[in-house]
Design brief:
heterotrimer, A alpha/beta, B alpha/beta, C mainly alpha, A: alpha/beta, Rossmann fold, Alpha-Beta Plaits, 6-stranded mixed sheet, 4-stranded antiparallel sheet, 11 helices, 14 strands, about 35% helix, globular, B: alpha/beta, 3-stranded antiparallel sheet, 9 strands
Amino acid sequence: MTTNLAIEASGLVKTFGELRAVDGVDLAVRRGSVYGVLGPNGAGKTTTIRMLATLLHPDGGSARILGHDIVAEADAVRSAVSLTGQMASVDEDLTGRENLILLGRLYGFKGKAAKDRADELLGAFGLEDAAGRLTKNYSGGMRRRLDIAASLVVTPELLFLDEPTTGLDPRSRNQVWDIVRALRTAGTTVLLCTQYLDEADQLADGIAVIDKGKVIAEGTPGQLKASVGSATLHVRLLQGDQRPQAETILARELGLVHLEPDPSALSVQCPEADKGAEAIAALGRAGVGVASFALGQPTLDEVFLALTGHTAEDKEEVKA
Amino acid sequence: MIAIEHLHKRYGDVVAVEDVSFTVEPNEIFGIIGTNGAGKTTTVECLTGVRTADGGRLVMLGLDPATQRDEIRRRVGVQLQSSHLPDRLSVREALQLYASFYEDPRDPDELIELLGLQHRAGARYGKLSGGEKQRVSVGLALVGRPQVAVLDELTTGLDPHARREVWTLIERLKLEGLTVILVSHFMDEVERLCDRVAVIHKGRVVALDTPSRLAAHGRLEDAFLELTTV
Amino acid sequence: MNQLIACEAKLTVREPVGLAFSLVLPLVIILAFGLSASASEPDEELGGVIALDTLLPSIGLALSFGMVAIFMLPGFMTDYRARGILRRLSTTPVHPAKLLAAQVIVQGAIALISVPLVLGLAVALGMSFPEQPLMVVVVVLLGGAALFAVGTLVSAVAPDAKIGYVYSAMFFFPSLFFAGVWLPKEQMPDWLSTIGDFTPLGAFRESLENAFTGTSQDPLMLLTLAVTAVAAGTVAARVFRWE
């Protein structure tokens, strides 16, 4: 039975002793989309993913992955799903190519087919030059790319990516993002867990924010940002020492001004674009030099903090 | 007084650091960014005396890292990538142990609270999440009340809340007089914390300026990508 | 330093399996064999001595010391190396050598605790009290030094716990054979028995036996222990890798 949903979860529950780590999670992820799952550590995110990947049995609720029930048809789920974590699943004492060929053969590719598949992946991930080197000598970015390549030896219909760019430099991150976009174009559904909210913003078609075992917000990045607050006017001055003056003017025009860590930048809530334009003009009239200004929606970071803002006392760690 | 002049370090045929020079001002948060394998970690390892340089001059707090490591160890706290603690040691025990190594350490419990780990203080290291282990690692570098903290991967693996807690902690310590050398990949972190940042690419410093001047009206990340095009 | 020792002691106690093997296993063996009647009577296979007075208690101590020095100590140290703990410590004012010292002290204490436990049980089962108690102490200290030196050497060279275990086993199990644990030395051909006398574990066990029965010590065996202690210790100090 085909459905246009890659993941359908309804009321998922998981308890560890007294702790309800996952307390009624619903999810609906369309096929061929990139879906972000965000949440503070210990919020139930990892446990939810593990249930969906058939690594844990739910204590309540149900879920279907690509039409297959995660409990009753776990094997069918596993054969269509691939999982990458931060822990590399490749052997350090083998070369990149050897690792991919090994996996290919484990998955049933014979001889030359396994080699071809390995070469294909090495090319797609920009690892041809490093293919003959031992994995233990790979840099962090290369290692992460190899790890993702390894999970794609047999192209899965659904890929769980757990924090794929943690610890990578911006260049390597962008390379991984390109890979994720290419996967989506090719029709793979990607479930992305990340602590980098701009990553979710850039890649995800839909996002669920999980906190205290429940989904507390769900929608596209745009919807989530709109739900949290109005747009913000960001201003950067030509001279940082004019900031006090700028602050006074903007406060008069728009309201409470926030001084950014960057000494020449400030921001202020701005419900209408017209008022923003007037405020900028006022700065100009007062002789305050403006280097740049932008009217932006709240960042996803701000959304996240607003949604999950609670003190440390409320946080509890879950160890599955 | 912290300075590096024409640092050169190779491992066999591979040149890890070609020619790196910079100084770090007292009470400054100095960032180092660069692509993987650019030589960032090797540079700070040489500066703290963990590795010996093949060429160039290094000064850490007026001392020579090659010959005066013991004195440097007392005054410089180092957080390294991928180094762990025994699984069965609890968070509190680990910080208390490290506190005992120094003459005038911070109170471990106070530090635990500043790191947001109060509810895990009795938990054993092996049972901590990646983010919690990361925070313990930062704590170990700071518990000795060092003059300089060398931090590599400060907030990797932390969720946005924890990240901010750690950033706030570093800013607070800066007010107390701490100097920080911060190796990072995370542009937001560099923008928020660093007074100046050096971009290292292929073993050389290709740019050194304040984050906002480096970003030059755009995003720091774009400036970084431009500077590190192969 | 005290804090470090206290820490290592806590960590060692939190690994109950290793402790159980090192302390309980020798007791179990003595109990199992010592309860049988033949253990308390002269045994022809052993050349007419009483097993309970000689073989059993010396094997007990050889086992406890061997396991603590050759398995537990390297087990901890190589694990610390592999996980970057030694490297981390080298950025603090405390040199990782102090951690090694703390471990040796803790493991040494455990080994010493096994002495009254093993001998106490043996005496309770009918062992005649050792003829030369002071000599027992001397042999324990000398043998302990030799075995711990070997353990330190294994710790020095093995890059991680897995390989450390292999090195430990490669030393330990043949040593047990040469020490006469699998096959009584009286039943070995002379040349084999002589080789055993020059292995640290073999020399340790024999010398203990001599001290129990009041037989005069073989100076070559004591020399073997001393030489092992010095040689293994020196090499270990030179090649110890902290990363």
